Automatic annotation (TrEMBL):
Top-level taxon in the UniProt lineage: Bacteria
Keywords in alphabetical order: Acyltransferase, Transferase
Protein name as annotated: N-acetyltransferase domain-containing protein
Domain N-acetyltransferase: start-end pairs: 6-172
Protein's UniProt keywords contain Acyltransferase: yes
Amino acid sequence: MVERDFTIRPIREGDFPQVRAIYELGLETGHASYETTGPTWEQFSTSKIMDTVLVAAEKEDPDFILGWVSAAPISTRQVFHGVVEDSIYIHPQGQGRGVGGSLLSTLIELCESRGMWAIHSWIFPENEGSAKLHASRGFQKVGTMHQMARMTYGELAGEWRDCDLWERLLATPE
Ligand SMILES: CC(C)(COP(=O)(O)OP(=O)(O)OC[C@H]1O[C@@H](n2cnc3c(N)ncnc32)[C@H](O)[C@@H]1OP(=O)(O)O)[C@@H](O)C(=O)NCCC(=O)NCCS
């Protein structure tokens, strides 16, 4: 068994200020999302499938959130209800410690156990860390979508940016 110095648990509303701050630290890289600011709790909790939102907390300091992962629906069409999109953000102090890998593996198991059959991930081609993380958990890059949106900040500010689409197939439900 792998000894870990963090624990994974479902999100609680009181975690949200840290969850939002970790998201905004990710945005500051300029290679995590087109978004410019974090959501409100209302926006977050209505856009995610809340029972898939997990946080990793420091084992020695359980109030310190190291990172989070979530799944959200890819479509409002009922026929696609088993296909979700992931988001994953790790605090700079938590990166490189296996937190992202553990959260993503846990999300995959959770989604499969809930009868979902695919997870999509949108990753900027420049985000090598996220691509490596997803590849390490069995995601495959299926293609590149072009000029999805104009980036408004960071080193690619002003450029119409491409985004890679990755997928992780899960067992199909009975
Ligand atoms: C990308 C990110 C989620 C990775 O999380 P992490 O906790 O540092 O990743 P881990 O330590 O669990 O590493 C998981 C795997 O990915 C690889 N990896 C992670 N970051 C990497 C990097 N920058 N370069 C190369 N490989 C990397 C690791 O080698 C590891 O592979 P392994 O399990 O086969 O050994 C994290 O850097 C982050 O939050 N970045 C900012 C926000 C962001 O870009 N989110 C994704 C938006 S699509």
